[in-house]
Amino acid sequence: MVRLCFLLLALMARLLPAQPIFFDGSASAGIGHPGRNFGVAFGDYDGDGADDIYISRHNAPNLLYRAIGNGQFVEVAAQAGIAHVGTTNVSSWGDFDNDGHLDLYLGNRDEPNILYRNNGDGTFTDISVSAGVNSGHRTRAVLWGDVDRDGYVDLYVANLAAPNYLYHNNGDGTFTDITVAANAQDFGIAMGSLFFDYDNDGDLDLYLTHDANQPNILYRNDGTGHFEDVSVAAGANIAAQGMGVDFADINHDGFFDLYITNLYENVLLLSDGDGTFTEMGSPAGVDDLGMGWGTVFLDYDNDGHSDIYVSNDTYFAPFDNLLYRNLGNTTFEVVSEGTPLSSPMAGYGVATGDVNSDGKPDLLLVNAGSQDGNQLFLNSTENGHHFVKVRLRGTESNTAAIGARVTLEANGQVQMDEVCAGMGYASQNSFTLHFGLGDATLIDRLSIRWPNGAVETYEGLAVDQHYHITEGEGVTTSAFGRRKAIPGLRAWPNPIQDEFWIEYDMPNRSGILQMQVLDIQGRCIATLPSSHTDGSTGRFQVSASGWPAGLYLIVCCSEEGVALKRIVKQ
Fold it and tell me: I want to staple 488 with a disulfide (CB 3.0 to 4.6 A). Which of 95, 189, 473, 505 is the partner?
């Protein structure tokens, strides 16, 4: 089978070096369902090594997209027993019983929340009542994290104008409400929330955003699962119409920073390295004025710096979605204008994962407009940068390694990230951590701090690999081969007229061939019929009638490679 052929031409990358090239591959991937979609969660529920996707919706069955390879999916929520019909705002994957299978928790608006236990055979069982986690408030965020480092992930549920809950995992399939005992209360208008280690002391701290100008809360974990409100002292008590939040070390100083979406100016809290934060949204150039909901850090161009994607409800306020490119000096530039990433719809949750396993992080955006549909933005930015992907499995720690930190050193630069279950707005990224490496050709050192505090270090690792690391057992590798160019792609006349020809030859190659013509902004102008080839020459006649003058790019893809050709219409 041919992988989705939404690949950026190297020529286009040279013409527009800062321009990201993402393609809307929703229809081809089988995940473009319209409806009131609110949240998205990546997780490999069937253990086949490929991320599956769960979509939280209102007034229609929730969706489970099972990955079937080559960046394509099939919807199986009903077969799996998790096609809940109601008002689900958020979902999150976590292996609460450490059996190696990801379980799923749903945070609902108008009905009790649901915990689905993964049966290990592709189906799930609702154990909400017996587990004691069927709270019934308007939930906006769901987080898994081992707050007391006992080897089992606990559950935090953030609710809208109702008490939040911290459920301690008892390790026997049940949970105990320890919210008051742990001092993790919140009765505000809760929105996006995070578990992350802001002070580098090895345990998970908690950050809660609020709507209605209620101050956000930063709870510091003392290492036992008991929390102290340090919001004011840390300068993290932003009071706005907060919605989503994510973390990353944007300036490589060894401390995580926070980005918070908002109605009006978004907020960037830059860690000062001493337990305090400084608000830098405007100086950094990321203070978008839209109706912000979801947000996610990702290194879209694999240059080693964390970029930011922002999802806006453009029906509420006329501001499109944004991709901010990190310039490496604590400032950012907008690079999404005129690309599919702008997506002027009712954007809500967004998360990232490498859907087609090409070494570039993709984006899954869900929209709440009844006719909008979900959008899978496939990343085809081509610049020759290297990367590494890291997937962890705990043994002494929780099996999904939630809360583990990976620190990577390459070419004089240090990066870090943590495995997080619940982020942004109502969403969850892939459990596989993705690091861009720029021009680095060797990873000098990769260290893992497991949730129980144990540290493992590996040196001299190759780039462009997917490393699977099991706690206490070492590393295995999956290599990602660079795609080779198909020879013999031609177009004539060039400059083209209203009719022109495309011809290719593929000696010693076979498989399905797919071909598209893209404009300079990466939008598909024409898709030519897919065909099988046995190594012979193929030829297409293409109508360019009505195309405006300008530069166009032909993408010709097969199972074994991609060919790129520039054409011009005068």
Answer: 505
